[in-house]
Structures are given as structure tokens and as C-alpha cells.
Amino acid sequence: MNKGVYLALSSIALAQGLKIPIHYYKKKEWRPDLFFQTGGMPSSHSAGVSTLTTYIALQRGLPTFDFALSLVYGLIVMYDAQGIRRQTGELTLKVNSMHDLMEKVDKEESVEFEQESPKKLKEMLGHQPEEVIGGAILGALVGVVGHLCTKNSRKMSNFKLKSDRRWF
Predict the structure, then answer these.
(1) pLDDT per position as a tens digit, 74-88
(2) Residue 89 lies in a domain
(3) Where would you tag: which of 40, 60, 125, 162 has the fewest CB atoms within 10 A of its CB?
(4) Nearest alpha carbon to residue 38 among 133, 122, 97, 96
(5) What pLDDT shows up at residue 111?
(6) 75 in a domain, yes or no?
(7) Mapped to the 3 state alphabet, what secondary structure does the chain carry?
(8) Phi, psi of 167 (to 5 degrees)
(9) 121 occurs within a structural domain
């Protein structure tokens, strides 16, 4: 794998990890399981695609096909994360509340009815716009840091090659 992939995956993991202390700060509730869940602040989807796009822009330049492809793909992912997936989450909230309402109605009936209770649907699927922006900013920062680290390591390896040639 190349460094862009490593940086994007690291950014996703970092965003997922940051969800735990941010949730704790907001709700005073320690939930390490958030690392493996979707939704929440910051968006790991946005962080990953922003890291890759930023890294490509700095390494290859803006007028390249690589950058254009990464930018368009990233915008689609971020739009989906805050648009369609968020709407699905809101619909899930309504379905879950209808289930609660139906349970109340069932309890008031005199007829006995055995029904296996369905599992509640996951309600935190998508992101609020600020969560997507937070992930994008995090991703851009990781992309810049990754580029700077790559740039410095490239300078060091060029220096080492030049200094090794003097001895031969």
C-alpha cells in the first residue's frame, strides 16, 4: 500500500478514536464501543477522504487526474454521510418510536397476543453537517502532516544517497 492509503486509514482510526472522548465531554458517559459504530463527531468518512485528497493535492498537485478523482469521490462520500445516511437515521428514530407506541397500544388491549419483540434499529447512522466538517478538517490536517513527514523523509533519503556516493 502507498502512504496515501496508510494516512487515510490512520485518519479514519483517529476520528473513530476521538469519538469516545468527545462523547464523554458532551454526555459525561464513557462509551468505548463508539470506536466501532457509525455516526458521531467527527465523521471518519470525511476524515479519510479529506486526508487522501489533501495528501494527493500536496504530493501531485491540483491539476492532476488523481486529485480530481479523489476530490469528487470525497465530496460524494461527505454528501452521503450527512445527507442520505442522516435521513435514514432520522427515519429509524421514527420507526423505533412507532414500535414503542405500538407496545403501549398492545398493553391496553384485553386480547393476549404473543409477539417476539423486534430489535431496535440503529439510530445513529449518519452525520450532522458540523460532524462532517469536523471530520474534513481533521482529515486535511492529517493529510498536511503526512505530506510534511513524507517530504522530510524524502529529503533525508536523498541526502543519504548523495553522502553515500562520496564514499565510493
Answers:
(1) 998 888 877 766 666
(2) yes
(3) 162
(4) 122
(5) 47
(6) yes
(7) CCHHHHHHHHHHHHHHHHHHHHHHHHHCCCCHHHHHCCCCCCCHHHHHHHHHHHHHHHHHCCCCHHHHHHHHHHHHHHHHHHCHHHHHHHHHHHHHHHHHHHHHHHHHCCCCCCCCCCCCCCCCCCCCHHHHHHHHHHHHHHHHHHHHHHHHHHHHHHHHHHHHHHCC
(8) -85, -10
(9) no
Query: For 9-51, what is each residue's pLDDT tens digit?
Result: 999 999 999 998 888 888 888 888 878 887 778 888 899 999 9
CB count in 10 Å sphere of residue 16? 18
Give the three cell numbers for residue 24: 464523554
Q: How far is Cα 69 from Cα 78, in angstroms, rounded to an integer? A: 14
**pTM of the full predicted structure?**
0.66
Cell of 117: 419483540
Domain of 24 in residue numbering reads as 3-115+132-166
**Percentage of the chain modeled with pLDDT above 90:** 29
